[in-house]
Amino acid sequence: MNMREEELTRLATGCQLRRLERGKLIFRAGEPCNEFHVTVLGQVKLFAISPAGTEKVIELCGPGYTFAEAVMFMGVPYVVSAQTLTDSLVLTVQKDVVLNEIAANPSFALRMLAGLSKRLHGLIKDVQGYALHSGVQRVIGYLLGDRMTESDVTSEAITVSLPVSKAAIASRLSLTPEYFSRVLNELETAGLIHVDKRDIHIADTARLANYQPR
User: Which is it for the CA torsion 101, 106, 108, 110, positive or negative?
Assistant: First the structure.
């Protein structure tokens, strides 16, 4: 969300910037939520634990990504947990200063609403993807990102650097790590990508977007 200097100055009174090492819990599900957070540097995962003890990654939050706003406004405890996947810099913004700014600044309120609406739209797309797309299509969609939303994907060579482990990305896509690796191997065998550790080299984005598994 783009913010004016005077807005940033007012919000700064209720902000805390924290340097967190890899593996640090930011909050746990069930704890009171009186703030929202921004990943300034690093990577944060939002996750839930099933009754059987299995972890499911809900979202991966890279630099510039905000999280927990909706829960903060609802006045309910955190519904998921958050943990750093790398050494990270996280900004925490207190609820009181946000509510004060909303009350005094309708433009700020509309921009917050637009941000939450965009996030909701993204979640709806995720649900559609899980319900309607195969595992291969989900992996391709992740690699191509916003290019998949274009009406006609242009041919270009790009490199995608995986920001976190393959296991975390697989969980985010509701896939097992083994299946995620098999899909990457399938795409590499088909000559569509080349995997170099965490770097995925894509020779032709249009060919990858149009790939149909056997």
Answer: positive
Place of tokens 């955190």: 78
Q: Look up residue 117 and give its two tokens.
A: 């609406």
Rounded alpha-carbon distances, angstroms, from residue 195 to 101, 114, 158: 47, 37, 12
Q: Which two tokens stand for residue 19?
A: 């340097």
- Tens digits of residue pLDDT in 182-192: 999 999 999 99
User: Tens digit of pLDDT for each residue in 92-132?
Assistant: 999 999 999 999 999 999 998 988 888 888 778 777 777 76
CA dihedral 190, 194, 196, 198 (to 10 degrees): -90
Helix axes 106-132, 95-104, angle to 10 degrees: 120
CA distances 168 to 36, 60, 172, 211, 213, Å, are 23, 8, 6, 24, 24
Residue 105 Rama label (left phi>0; alpha psi -120 to 50; beta): beta
Angle in degrees, 0-180, between the axes of helices 135-144 and 177-189, rounded to the nearest 10: 70
- Tokens 């200063």, located at residue: 97
Contacts by 193-197, CB closer than 8 A, 24 or more apart: 193/143
Is 166 strand, coil or helix?
A: helix
